[in-house]
Fold Nucleoside hydrolase.
Amino acid sequence: MKRIILDVDTGIDDSMAIAYAAHSPELELLGITTCFGNITAEEATRNSLTVLEKLGKQVPVIQGAKETLCRGERDHYARTVHGEDGLGNTVQHAPRGQAKEGHASDFIIEQVKRRPHEITIISVGTLTNLALAIQKDPGIVSLIHEVIVMGGAVTVPGNVTPYGEANIVADPEAAAFVFAAGLPLTLVGLDVTMQTLLPKSHLEAWRASGKAEGMFFADIAEFYMGAYESFYPGIGGCALHDPLAVGVAIDRSLVEAQPMRVTVVTEGEQTGRTVGSFEGEPKINVCLKVDADRFLAHFMSRIVGV
Ligand code: BDR
Ligand code: CA
């Protein structure tokens, strides 16, 4: 079993990633760390607790970065894509659970040191918490088993700018720092996640499951699909960005990757662009191909625990 920390900015596809991880026996979910991104860090914490409540799972949630590494607080969020509340406007009350005390970056440090070479960090939001953890304690770099990052667009256009993917654009310095840290890191970017579409027709299976969580995921996915339809007319579904990073943690053979050095543009109109090169060090594994059908079938078999 892989021991994981899931770092999120919950978010609709983050919610699906939480469910996928929580329902997968190959993974032991040690904690969910939250950061700003799709919404504020406080909202990401609330939403993560809300999703866990829907799932009936108890996992520690630890709040992290409220602002970027070097640029202060973000002045905008992705509410048009994920809803005013980040969960497709479905939040009706505060969750019963509470976040654990402390900062996400300290939780990462503590877990990695407690279990050297065992922890996989799956980051599906900004890379701020991980960057902060490494800045506080650089010794953890050699003790982390693996990092899997949903972020970037190395061979394809961006999604929030012509060049940049949302998680990298939201904190480019954090991403640049993490990619240069010498970690065993796999990048699951738009290069592959835009190929893993959840078709609208699949939501029927969730509604038909008769489970409250099935209805919840169908409702929030439908909102997300509405946003996708407005950005990509005729797409007929939504991209499973964050769930694919979890899928890669479960079964590496879902993707094919190439080792590349990836730098991040931090100035000018291309800010947030991830630039890959076969020259130079350190290299990270950039996913370039995905078995989308096999991934979708696996994801569907796990998401609402059916
Ligand atoms: C990424 O950006 C966020 O909006 C999603 O949750 C995902 O992590 C996709 O670019
Ligand atoms: Ca996310």
Q: What stands out?
A: The chain has one domain: 2-303. Residues 212-231 form the longest helix (20 residues). The chain is about 35% helix and 20% strand.
